[in-house]
Structure formats: C-alpha cells, structure tokens
C-alpha cells in the first residue's frame, strides 16, 4: 500500500506515538499524552506502515460494502417504482373489465341480444345465423367474465410482489444506513491515520518512501502475464476507449463512493471508464468479479480488470506492460502501479 510522504512538517516522536495509538480499530486502553512516555515509542517504521496499511485496507472493504448496499437499495427502489406502476395499471384494468362485464350482463338480462335473436328467428331469412350469433354472444360474455377473473388474480399477484418489494427495500435501506454509519467511523480513523503520516519525522518519511519503492520493484518482477517482458499490447475498440478514459483521470483524488467526474473510488473508476466506452458494467469490484467474464491471468490484455484480495474488494484496470491504472485508497490519487503490487484474485473482461 502506498503511503503519502511529501510536504508535511515534522513532529515529535511522542506526538507520532500518540496518534498511532489513536487509530486502533477496537476499543482499548487510552494512549499516553504527548509529553508522557509511551510503550509504542520504539515502533519501527515498518510496524507503523503495517498498521497504516491495515487501516486503509479496512477502509476499502468498508467502501465496497457501502457501495454494494447502496447499489442494491437503488435497484430495489427502481423495481418498487415499476411494480407500483404495474399495480396501478392492473387495478384500472380490473375496474374496466368489471364495468364491462356488468354492462354486458345487464344488456342480455334486459333482452338486448336475446330479444334481437328472437326476432331474427321469427322473421329472418337465415335463422341458423341468428342462433350462431346468440351462441357467440353468450360465449363472449363468458370469456369476458373469465378474463376479468384472470385480471383479478394478476392484480392480487402484482400487489403481493409490490408488498414484498417494499419490505425488501426497507431491509436494504437499513443495511445502507448501517454501512453508511460504519463508513463514517472509518473516515474518522482515516483522518487520524493522515495525521500520523503528517507527523512523521523526515527520516521516517524517507524510510517509508524507500519501502514503497522497494515494494514496487519487487511487484514488477512478480508479474507473470504474457507481456511480462515489458512490452505493451495496444488496446483496441471499447477496451481502448476505457483505458484512455481511465488514464485521463490520473491525479484525481480517491473519495468514498465516488464515480467522477472529479474523484473516484477503485470500482467507481473502472465502472465509469467502461460506461464511457459504451459497455456499462456492475458498480462494485465484487459485482464485477462475480458478473463479468473471467480470463486467465496470462491472457490479460489492456482494458481487462484485475480483481484483488480474496474478498474482491479492490480493482484496477490493466493497461499492459505489467501495469494497472487505479484509485488506490483514501489520501491518494488515481495513478499507475505494478499489476502485481497486491494479491491478485483474478482477471475479468468486460464486453466479452
């Protein structure tokens, strides 16, 4: 995980230690005041970095959980609105058929069709035709009553589906609210993590930058795609449009749940890029992993999405040459990184 280092004033190690203690995710004993000795004063830069990486990782998991909950609730809102329209149409149809059947029955009861049939039987040149017409009228009335009954059953079923959809929406809205509350807690911890980074001494910041550089070099050597030698396959068609769109977004900040145009989260970037290419894809990294066509890592080509971590909570767009463009995490901007810089779950190909 990359760590921002530049342009921040140094602070004392005691302040750093206090801030490190402050980002603990689970309740625990209070940490020492800035001027008091603290047992974590001897923490190494590697340990500080590991804690920051863990915090930002949890933030990304919370981001994707919130995005998924929001996506499901939004889709359910659309479904419920459609069902309510269907229910209104069904109710109107049932009412119309009920009125029509009643009018037809009253007409026959008053002798409208049957009286006309009797006259034709007595005076007409074609009595057989009159009997046929009377039979057809009765059958039409029976059919009308039958259709009305079917419409009533259909209306009852649409009503049942509407009630079920409304109940499901209430559940999804509660889940969305819960995830939003968790997101707010994580945001507060991210703020404290950023304070820790801002409080690093010059030598600590330099060491973190070196660790990041070393990890980048190791990640380059871990790439096993068909273009592992460094050559870059040129993207074509919709994939080229998606890559071009994503590359233009470099430098824009990572923001929770953002889908542009001024900021993105990881799956917000990939989903918006492919939508811009004319191929809408699922919103979240997990939905992209489960819903798109999977390809072998060795077959990855520009425009493909590389899904990371066992829970599919991060995604980047492959651009060739063993590199991805992605929105890394809070506090960072859309950038290029080695494709093997995180644990790879697999590769998916939109539009396949």
Strand content: 5-15%
Distance between the termini: 31 Å
What coarse outline follows from CA principal-axis ratios? elongated
| Residue-averaged pLDDT | 75
Structural class by helix and strand composition: alpha+beta
H and E string: HHHHHHHHEEEEEE
Query: Helical proportion?
Result: 55-70%
Point out poorly predicted stretches: 1-41, 111-125
DSSP summary: helix tally:
8
Please state how the strands of the largest beta sheet are arranged side by side.
1-6-2-3-4-5
Q: Count all strands and give the number.
A: 6
Largest sheet: 6 strands, antiparallel
Rg from Cα? 33 Å
Textual characterization of the structure:
By secondary structure, the protein is an alpha+beta fold. Helices cover 60% and strands 8% of the residues. It is built from eight helices and six strands. It has helices at 13-22, 45-109, 112-123, 127-198, 202-222, 237-248, 266-276, 285-291, and strands at residues 293-295, 305-308, 314-320, 323-326, 335-338, 344-349. Strands 1-6-2-3-4-5 form a six-stranded antiparallel sheet. A hairpin with a 5-residue loop joins β2 and β3. α1 runs antiparallel to α4 and α2 (45-109) packs antiparallel against α4 (127-198). The two termini are 31 Å apart.
